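Long-time lurker. I teach an intro course on protein structure, and each term I like to show students one example going from raw sequence to a predicted 3D structure in token notation. This year I'd like something fresh instead of my usual example. Would anyone be willing to generate the tokens for the chain below so I can use it in lecture? Attribution to the forum is fine with me.
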Amino acid sequence: MERQRVGADLRLPRHPVRAAVVTALGGPDVIEAADLPEPSPAAGEALVEVAAAGVNFIDTYHRTGLYPMEVPFVPGLEGSGRVVAVGDGVDASLVGSRVAWASALGSYAEMVTAPADRLVPVPDGVGDAAAAAVMLQGLTAHYLVNDTFPLAAGHRCLIHAAAGGVGGLLVQLAKAKGAEVFATAGGPGKVALAAEAGADHAIDYRAGSFRAAIEEIAGPRPLHVVYDGVGAATFDDGLDLLAPRGLMVAFGNASGPPAPLDILRLSRGGSLYVTRPTLGTYTATPEVLRARAADLFAAIAAGTLAVRIGERFPLDEASAAHEALEGRRTVGKVLIEP
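-- Reply from a regular --
Happy to contribute to a lecture. Here you go:
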């Protein structure tokens, strides 16, 4: 879709824009493709032509209503593309720039508006697909290993779903910090991918208890930190693997949210900690957001961080993208490409 590049004081002619729309709360079948009026950037916003949009579990939480949403709405928070217009108060030189974002609802569309101060520049050495793939998942992995629990040599960590989008990046970043990495994945193929990403111990959770496998390798309660994006299916055993004063980082609910926690379990386990971090908290200012993104993009451009792109779907097949993600049939990042 070609667009005239314009400054803040000009306006584009309006065109129909193809988008995926959640028409009701429910399963993947509630997502329908539709033509919508082209959005116009408000003050402080930019209008971006979307090259790729990331598909994430938070999108499914929005679709089902686990995270409350009013319908209808266009899902998707993450993507990459090129700025084609800006609203009042935004530097017109941004027009024509390649950018990426992690918090612009409505990204499953040919065009999206986003707060200009939440866009990050994409360098020439990083492609559109890779840029879209690391905004939510890569930034999450970055803050988890650098700030939520700053990993260092001598630490032992557990990473679940290590063949997935966050997991594969998290394994690489954890190994770069010098940690000993235990990783779980489902099935021999995904276990091999976790090992390829650098996991010291790649464990097939389908073949038996991951807790028993880790204890066999390292003894009881060997872990300093558990990075758990799975939730209900893994939380209890992960908590029981933590060493005294260890940290459970529950950052996702792929299998549903964990049951309410008996706070006394933390004292019985040896003064344990539990946290539920969010990307918004760890990228609260534009400066921090851009610094984290710049770190990731530099690693991608240097070839020290590999971004695995799994399946790619057109907008009209957004429901199939959700089915694949929720069915655990994906490896690496799932993208929608308008």
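Some talking points for your students: The mean pLDDT is 93. The chain has two domains: 16-135+284-336, 152-276.
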